[in-house]
Structures are given as C-alpha cells and as structure tokens.
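3.2 Worked example (two chains)
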Amino acid sequence: MSFIYNLIVFLLLISSIYEFSTNSKPNKTWFKTIVVIMIFTAGLAYALSPDWFPYWRAFEDVAITPFADLKELSDYWDMEYGYILLNKLVSSLGLGYATFTLLIAAIALYLKTQTIYRYGGYVFLAMLMYTVPTYFFEEHVHVRQGLANAIMFFSIRFIIERKFWKFFLCFVIAFYFHKAVIAFLFAYWIVKIPFNNFMIISAVLASILSYVLGLSQAIDGLFRILPFGVGETYIDYANEFTEKSLLGDVVKVLTIIAILLFNKQVVAKDNLFVYFRNIYIFGVVIYFFFGEGIFAARLPVFFTGYIVFVVPRMVMALRDTPTYKNLVYSMFLIYTIMLYVHFYNVWGDKSGFGRYTTVFSTENYGFFQSN
C-alpha cells in the first residue's frame, strides 16, 4: 500500500487506542483533520482501478451532451440518472473531472463522517473500521455506491427520529445514484423488530439454510422482473462473480456472537444500539442468503456497513465491565488490522492503491474543462 494509505490507517489506529485507553471525548479538530486528508487522498487519486476509465469517459460524454439527452446517455453507460446529472451540473460550470472526483469524495465523506461522529460511540474505532475496507472501495472504486451509501448513512437520524418523509427523500436521492440501495427502504421498519437471541440465531441460520437448499436461486426470477430498473441491475450483477473473503465471513460470525453474548447488557445501557444492531443483522441475513456472487457483496453492504456503529457502541456500553470491554475492543481491533494486511496483500500490487498517483501527474484531465 502507498504511504498515504498507511499514514491514514496509522493515524486512526493511534487515535483509536488513545481514545479507548483514556476514555476521552474525541477531539473534533483532529477528527476533521484526518477526514480532510481522506477527502483529498480519494478526491485527487488518479487511475486507481479499472472503473476509473469508464467513469472518466462518461464525464467527458456528459459534458458534450444536452440535458434533454441525459437519460439516453445514462442507459448507454449503465449509470444511474442522478449520477449522470451530477456530472452534467459540474461540467456545465466549466469544471473538469478532477473537480468532480474531489467533489463526490467530499460529499460522501462529509455525510458519512458526520454520522460516524454523531453515532459512532468510540469514534476513532468506528472510523478505522469504516476505512478498512469501505473507504478504499466506496470512495475510490465504487463511487456511485459510495454516494448512495453516504446518503443512507445520513438518513439514519431520520429513522431514529421516526421522520419517514425525510428518510424517504434521502432514499429516493440515493436510489438515483445506485439502485442496489432499494432494499434499504425496509430499514425504517426493520429497526423496530424486537430481536432477542432466539430470533437472531433463527434468522441467521434460516438464511444459511435457504442458500444451501437453493431457495435464493428459486427467487432469482422475481428479482429479474423488479421495476424501476432494479431488475436490469440485478441481471447485470447476477452475471458477474465476486470471490468472498474468509475474513468477511469470520467478522460477521464474530459480530453476531458478540451481539448474542452482550445484547441485553448493551441494550440496557444504550437505547440507540437496537437501531444499528437490527440493520446490521438484516445485512448478515441477506449476505448469507445470497451466498456468493457480486449481488451478495453489493446489496448487503448498505446494511453490514453499520458494523462501524454496532461494535464501537457495544464497546462503549461495556465500559463498566473492563474485561468484556477490553475483549471486544481487542478482538475487533486485531480483526481490522488483519483485514488491512489482507487488503494490502491482495490489492496493493493489483491496483493503484500500491502505487498511488494524483491528478497532478497526468494531462488527461484537470480541474477545469479544456477547450
């Protein structure tokens, strides 16, 4: 991995250990400083993945396409209309692709990190768990998904406050950036399910059994005919394959076990924990239900990403029982470090993460439109 990514992870790791060991309130200025570094790192990155080229070409095409023809261009590039429209708004101001990538990184990270600071419990642990690996993928590679996920992160406050129409507005906007967000609409009601340990175990085991018995394949036809372009997106994803990481399975099992062990104790101390717990559990159920393939990776992430709230809030709620608190914190900190090492070994040499370059190293595009 390039120096800048090692630096970001190191700063978050040291900050997390300090916050945990001192039980001190996170320094907001220091938090914002790290976020700014992350924004510029992602926003100024150049050619980090194969997705970079089509996104750049789409931006160039959008710049010369009238507003009236954007829907047709959206279909051509197989990119949601909201994302194409944002491209057009930026290019219409005479700004270039470098400005666009910096802007979307700033929007996504602002929405996500503000939510993490507000609800993250041990904030720097939450940031570290978000960074490895979500930051690398959503703010560098799957940027449409990253924007959609950022909007839904922001919407969690409206779920908690039971303001449906504000939540629904966020959902609609997010849908126009990535259709895979469709299932998150149910989060508004999922948070109210009174999960106990029996229900949690039953739901997870049922999802695994359904996959083994082929039930997930049985409903494949239903997903293919979903309206609003969701069916087409599902078909595209169903024809791709994504290898699942063993660590991805392990952390989900460990998190469910931790929830089962400390559920009552944490809920008694933290009345907001159930919101994040329920969302995460639903993501795990979806993850094991689909079993494999890219749809199993893309759809659940809108739910499983809430591990960045579940674990730090759990650790915070266990602060009066140091043994349990230290155990849970150490377990997930070690997991996160192992995941970063795994990411380093798998992606460091295969992508631009191992040879980070910025827009300043290329003449292909800049911050303003070239004539």
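3.2.1 Second chain
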Amino acid sequence: MRKETPVHALERLKWFTVSRLVDGLLHLEMWLPLRANGIWTRRSAFTEGDIRKAANTTNPRAFFDAFAGGGATVPITEEVVGVSAGSVGHHRLWFQSPFVSGVGANNTVRASLYRRARPAPLVLILVGTFAERFNSFGLSMAKTIAEKGSDCCWMAVPFSDGRSPAPGTSSFMTADPVATAESFIQAVMDVERLSHILRARFGYREIGLVGVSISGNICHAATFLQPYAGAVLIMAGASPADIVWHARGAYWRRLRRLMGRTHAFREVESLWTMSDATRYTAPNLCPRFLMLNGLYDNLVTPAHARRLNAVIQNCRVIWYPGSHYSSPLFIGPAVENTVRFFRGEPLKDTGLKPKALTAP
C-alpha cells in the first residue's frame, strides 16, 4: 500500500471528480429510454413459479438444466470477416441458444472470435453487458487481447447487440424481475454452449472467462457448470438484487419504483438467487479468479466487491481509482492484467485499497 502524499491526494480528487461526471451523464442517458419504455413484455414459456421452484436447489447444474430447451442439434453459422494487420482473424458466429425466450430474435446468439494465425490452446470468452454503449468497448477489448497474444471470443448477452427485435425495445435488465431472471439464466447457458462450440469446432483445449459488471456474475455462475482455466471478473459484486436495490442515480431509482409495483425486494432476491455468488454451495470448477474493481464505484460498491471476493477461492483483487461507468478509462491496464493473469505472469497492482483511497 503506497504512502499518501499531497500528489496522491490531488490524484484522488481528479479521478473521483471524473468518475462522478461520467456517472451523471450515463445515468441520464440510461434513464430516458427507461422512462419511455417502462416494462417490456418478453417472457418465455417458463413461469415465475418455475424459476422459484428451480431456485430451491443448491446445485447449479440442476438449476440450469431445468430450463434447457434448445434441442440436441445446434446449427452454427460462421463468417470469416478478415485478417487485421496484426494477423488476427475475425470470425463471426451465430448459434441457437439452449434457452428459448419469448422473442425469436433473441434466441440466436452472436459472437465474434478474434483468432491469431497460429492459435493457442487457450481462448478467452469475453461476455458482453446489457449497456449497448459498453459493448463497443467489449469488442475493442476482445480484439486488443488477441493482438496481445491471447485468442478471444466476445459474446453478446440476451437482448443486446442485435438480439432485440428493434433498437431500444428491450434490454437484459428490465423492470420485470422475472424477465431479468430469464435473461441471466439464458446468458449462463449461452456461455456454456459457446464453450462447447469453441472446443469442438476450433479445437481449444482450455477456456478462460472474462466478465464485466453483471457479466462477471454470469461468468461466475458458468464456472459451476464445466471446467475453466480461470476467470477475470471486472466491476462485479455479490448479489445483483442487493446492488440494484441500493444503487444511486435516477435510472436505478426509476427501475426500483417500476419493480416495486409488482415485487418486493425479497421476492426479487429470491427470483435472482442463481445470480448471487453467496448462495452457491456446490464445488467450483475454476481453479483461480482475478477481480478488477473501482474504488469510487457507487453501483457495485467496494463492499459488494468484497462480499464476492469472500466466497471465491483463490481470488486476487486489484483496485483502480474509478467508478462503474468510468471503467473504460482503465481498459488498457485491465487488458494487460487479464492477459498476464491467463499467462501466469506477475500482475501489475495499483497498490490501492478501499480504506487507503476513499472518496473525498
């Protein structure tokens, strides 16, 4: 832990101010479509009772198997887009989701595989987020990881990047907690199916997972379903229900009011059980984890991050002087540590801790 100096104090103030400005701008941008659309209707054939019944199990495998309905044959469409100057090939993949949602366009999973001319035995799956603006950063991050020497496949989560009937008509997270629970279930099952495809079609022997925000929880859940070489969780924390219920900002206040019309907090928490890392009791199939979190994050707070860290075995945490929405400013160091983590190289720690670097 580095010693505090006047220079460090100014640095704290600078990054805290930048983080809050970015937070405010993006909260406004997210609130406008929520105000216009309210609750989106897009439920699958499963009922709220089906999800609650499945959530009674402590076995993640049994929980997700209860919703499998994509069929045994999985048609895969592949398009080779081209090769960049760094000899990184771009393959676009489309395949059927094992979870059949109530919207046809959402049941085709989209992925982009960035593969070097001489592929390695390890590929990373970078799971997208429900915020469309951040998906462009995800694609850029996947390509950068490949250029640094690790093949990487970016996957769109449900109702994002073309998986909605029309732009702005739906979202991964909505004011209907049942529909949001379905999105989480579908995303975890999509990751598992993509893992099988990468192993069988492209010959990868090992797969690592990288998730940002709620996708970090998706990746953590996926590690209970099959073995992975490791997982990097960026801006992720325990209990998404608790995070949403206590998040600051106009978007989250509006979302809670809409949710509260039909469900109390405990009901939402029960529906989202399998997204809460603290509820898992089965053995994890991933040997090591890395968490990258923001000291000024007022969505996934340091307290939420520490709760997640406390229930994951063999997990390292590195803190950056940013917030949830200013995290793209630290995309460079995050990519570098992600590549180093999967190569088994020493990580570049900032030396920052929540107690040493708090908001002014």
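3.3 Remarks
The beta strands are 76-83, 88-96, 108-116, 122-127, 151-155, 206-212, 230-234, 289-294, 315-320.
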